[in-house]
Design a protein that fits this description.
The chain is an alpha+beta fold and about 525 residues long. It has helices at about 5-55, 115-125, 130-135, 165-170, 210-255, 275-320, 330-360, 370-390, 405-425, 470-475, 480-490; strands at about 145-150, 155-160, 185, 190-195, 200-205, 370, 395-400, 400-405, 430-440, 440-450, 495-500, 505-515. Bound molecules: adenosine-5'-diphosphate.
Length: about 525
């Protein structure tokens, strides 16, 4: 069952469908999750950049101009670290300025602001908040609230939102993952940005809701995929059942056709085109088989019939001779009749054997090159007596022509045709024999002025045991196998034999055999 076409089709269909659905589902899932993470990362980056921009912005309200504001080349005393300074990406170092009173590193510019500096720093730190839109968007629950933390370049925390995970608050910026690339920490997505002086900003938020949505999507896609797979399998099962049904019908009909009922045919209507063609081929094969069986049956019946006649003659004459004592001449006459009948039987059996050999492909000519003209001469000598008996004149126009084949078999063909031309001729008629070439063939034609053959008999004269005029044939000693034998021999020589005839006027038989 599992080796059937239907199961093979079904399993391939299922495997391909499952593979296609899986591929489509996986591609969709990865594309959707990638897009979602891209969106989240862009939001985090936006918020991080806002925070960095606020760090860079100079204090809005400074009551006292900062001391030591006179910038020295290479050491700008700005808070933001932008503008002319030690160079982009390089945090200002204390070594860049004059040493402090304790001889240590130079003080940070904002440390030198005095009491006002406290105000400005407080102001700056108060301003350090992610954009309100970003916060509001995720403030449905405290779990989802975005968090942020800002470190100074030396690693001190400038500001951290209250919900920043403790583990991050205890992490040094140097231990954070590479800045500029968002990363996943548990259910949280985080992004670290660094400005030129080396201040770090980390913005993060829980992506649990997004993960849940993605999981839900996986479930929905799996359920939909399973549904589509089931529907697809069911559809495939229906289609394959419909496709295979005509095969079942063909098998059933073919099974019902046996030697005894070869007349059955597969109905070709409503059969799909490919199977319809198969059904037509099978029907043609059945027709040929039926014809061959009928021919074989007819052949056996004809052969039996032909054999029975001489056998009956032998049997009845022997019985009659033995019924009482006979004279020597009567016994002699009986034996002569039996001899004649057995001779007829012998000829018939030899013809049948030759045809059986031809059918089995055993009529292989012994190939030798020979000239047809002397062969025709020999055959004419053989039939000369018969022609003389019937007063038939034979005209010849024989040109030498070489063929390759079996001389004896070709001789048998010529003798058969000459015998027929004399037998089926009218008293005092004539026969004309011609040899020559016709293209690549040697041509032998034998034309007579005999009874001719009616059009309806012409296509059958080469069939076994076929006689156009059975009475005349029997009277002439024919058995209806002569032309069939001629055809088998000529075809074994890769040649052709044909006949043209007009009833009451005569017939012409033409034999073509490839030239040597
Ligand atoms: P048969 O032994 O009866 O002659 P053939 O096979 O030689 O058998 O011929 C088949 C039939 O073809 C003959 O019975 C005869 O009716 C017809 N036939 C053959 N040759 C000729 C011919 N030359 N003229 C007329 N009819 C012929």
């Amino acid at each position: 069952m599992f080796k059937s076409i239907r199961w093979t089709l079904q399993s391939w269909h299922a495997a391909l469908l499952a593979l296609a659905l899986l591929g489509f589902g996986a591609a969709s899932y990865f594309e959707i999750s990638r897009a979602r993470y891209k969106e989240i990362d862009a939001e985090l980056e936006g918020a991080g950049n806002v925070l960095l921009a606020k760090l860079r912005r100079p204090p809005a309200r400074l009551t006292t101009p900062p001391i030591n504001r006179r910038p020295r080349p290479g050491n700008p005393p700005e808070f933001n670290g932008d503008g002319p300074g030690p160079g982009p990406g390089r945090p200002p170092r204390r070594e860049d300025g004059p040493p402090g009173p304790d001889g240590g590193p130079p003080p940070r510019p904002e440390d030198q602001l005095g009491p006002d500096n406290q105000t400005s720093r407080a102001f700056v730190e108060r301003e350090i908040e992610p954009p309100p839109g970003f916060v509001q968007r995720y403030s449905a629950t405290t779990d989802e609230m975005p968090y942020f933390i800002v470190w100074r370049e030396d690693g001190d925390i400038i500001k951290a939102s209250p919900n920043t995970p403790a583990v991050i608050q205890h992490t040094k910026p140097a231990d954070l993952v590479a800045p500029g690339r968002a990363h996943q920490r548990g259910p949280n997505r985080e992004l670290v940005l660094v400005d030129a002086p080396g201040r770090h900003v980390l913005v993060g938020r829980s992506v649990q809701r997004d993960l849940d949505q993605l999981h839900r999507l996986v479930w929905i896609m799996s359920a939909t995929g399973a549904g589509v797979l089931l529907v697809g399998l069911f559809g495939g099962w229906l289609v394959s059942r419909k496709a295979v049904r005509p095969i079942d019908a063909i098998s059933a009909t073919a099974e019902s056709i046996s030697a005894s009922s070869l007349s059955g045919r597969i109905p070709v209507d409503n059969v799909p085109s490919e199977l319809g063609k198969l059904a037509q081929v099978l029907n043609a094969t059945f027709a040929r088989l039926e014809g061959a069986f009928a021919q074989q049956t007819r052949f056996t019946a004809d052969a039996s019939h032909e054999l029975r006649t001489p056998l009956s003659v032998i049997h009845s004459h022997a019985e009659l001779a033995l019924s009482r004592d006979r004279s020597a001449s009567e016994y002699r006459q009986t034996l002569e009749t039996c001899l004649k009948a057995s001779g007829r039987m012998k000829g018939l059996v030899e013809s049948l054997l030759l045809l059986a050999r031809a059918d089995a492909g055993g009529l292989k000519p012994e190939v030798a090159r020979f000239n047809v003209r002397p062969v025709v001469d020999d055959c004419l000598n053989l039939v000369a007596t018969l022609a003389k008996e019937r007063g038939i004149t034979i005209d010849t126009d024989l040109r030498p022509v070489d063929v390759e084949g079996d001389l004896t078999q070709v001789g048998q063909v010529i003798t058969n045709l000459l015998t027929n031309a004399i037998r089926y001729n009218r008293e005092g008629g004539s026969v004309r024999v011609w040899t020559g070439t016709d293209g690549k063939y040697a041509l032998l034609s034998i034309a007579d002025t005999g009874v001719g053959i009616a059009d309806e008999h012409l296509p059958h004269v080469f069939d076994r045991f076929y006689r156009a005029d059975a009475a005349r044939s029997r009277k002439a000693g024919g058995n209806g196998l002569g032309l069939a034998i001629c055809k088998s021999i000529v075809e074994a020589h890769h040649g052709t034999i044909s006949v043209t005839s007009r009833l009451g006027e005569g017939s012409t038989f033409c034999v073509r055999i490839p030239l040597a």
